């Protein structure tokens, strides 16, 4: 909290204080931190020079207009700086200068006194008014020289000096019926200023006892907001005279240029002297009232006495606290550290004492707490971690409760939005997926769609998919598959060949658009489904295309005699590789038959001695859809004395390692498909 003072007669532009130096910040940073001035009142009297870092006077101050007769006059300001957000309180005392001269309510005062008045008789005078305060207010009074009268100054309970003319020497109306005096009021300023009033005293006969107020000065305590018409007090005035000279009438004593405000709030019964309220009383508007009452008898000449009553109000808790949100930082990042300032909150209560003592409260389950900055100002800070994915915002209700009896409370609710940070990596619905695709499918065929989610929002939740190269195939995986980076759909880049690659492991990465970006991976196992695209291949007998295989058998071979065996293989798998053997139909009946599954050709019926060679066409067909086939021509020639060791002549090729691997792959594929 900064404290400055400035005289009320300073011209606009006067430097009140060096803010940069007193705040301990560099001048060049003030503009960047958006230093601004917030006045707690309705008028703006000051401004901030950001270039020089000083507080300047924006308009000329009038202490009397700002604070009236208050002994102190302070203006309260608030300075707000950002990055980080800070609030500073500035209190500026407005110093009084002697710019007002004392002034009497009337330029001429007419008094009356009976000639039989005894020395020591006092004639009260009107108090001069001086708007200045302290030493600049009225210091003393002076009376022009007189043989009969002197000046006496009494001090009232509130410190106001009351001038009175005191009779020092007996009067003789027949010699001097009228006395002319000059009353001068002097203030304590430098230089001294003064004001005068002409005092005319008429010397009369008769009524020689004035009304007397007992006590002359009294005090009454009264609660604010009492009902209108409440009795404040009844004046006790006595007059020793009799008849009209002792009949007293009461009236408020006010000055013409400054009529007492109390006349609007209090009523006076002119006959009984009862003072009652006639309007609601508010402690916050004024805590006390000074009431001057004139008691005048009906004698001739009339005599009067003066009663002074001080009414002090007792504060009651009739004002609810007021919550002022000076600044709110919304949204706040979800990774904000504990202690981060969220809002600056001020609180006001017009009541006094315990009635004006206010405490702030927020719900305990919120991850925030209130920290007292200085009197009646609080900072709302984070007290724990924030997670936007659990709570995207908070309705924060601040409750202000005073210490009065009964208590009065006010609450204000504001919404705080939590801003997202990229603290969650995308997550696939499954880390492993399986897909199937038919071999020879056209490039661009959709294989599978992966799906991932990200609990973040905005760009932090915008996902893009890509395929990683795992090096498991001879060629990069990107030459086989591609992925739509927006929706995660995997497509083929080229036609796949089951006989070359039966299964692919496709690593997929999903990455968000946050900074820094976060990612995760999943693996899609793509199984290639076989298609009947390979015809059977006859490996024995092996003859050039368009040629026939010649086989000799004994002329007297019996039925069941093994002539030869046709061996074929199919690069496909499963049903597409199941082979069957059969003889193509011919015009003549052939004495041979072929085993459907083994491909063995045997003699079906006894041969005649004179039979010529027989031409057989053996067809090998797979079980695919559509079925594919291959054929071989075998010429069988019966010969005399032909004995054949078929096990030697049938030079069947041994299965190659490639055929063995093919069988192994087939078994693995069938087992995998069955498991899925």
Automatic annotation (TrEMBL):
Keywords: Calcium, Cell adhesion, Cell membrane, Glycoprotein, Membrane, Repeat, Signal, Transmembrane, Transmembrane helix. It is a single-pass type I membrane protein. GO terms for biological process: homophilic cell adhesion via plasma membrane adhesion molecules. The keyword Lipoprotein does not apply. It is found in: Cell membrane. The gene is Pcdhgc5_1. InterPro entries: Cadherin-like_dom, Cadherin-like_sf, Cadherin_CS, Cadherin_N, Protocadherin/Cadherin-CA. Residues 46-104, 105-213, 214-323, 324-428, 429-538, 545-657 form the Cadherin domain. GO terms for molecular function: calcium ion binding. Pfam families: Cadherin, Cadherin_2. Its main location: membrane. GO terms for cellular component: plasma membrane. PANTHER family: CADHERIN-87A, PROTOCADHERIN GAMMA-C5. This is Protocadherin gamma-C3. Coiled coil: none annotated.
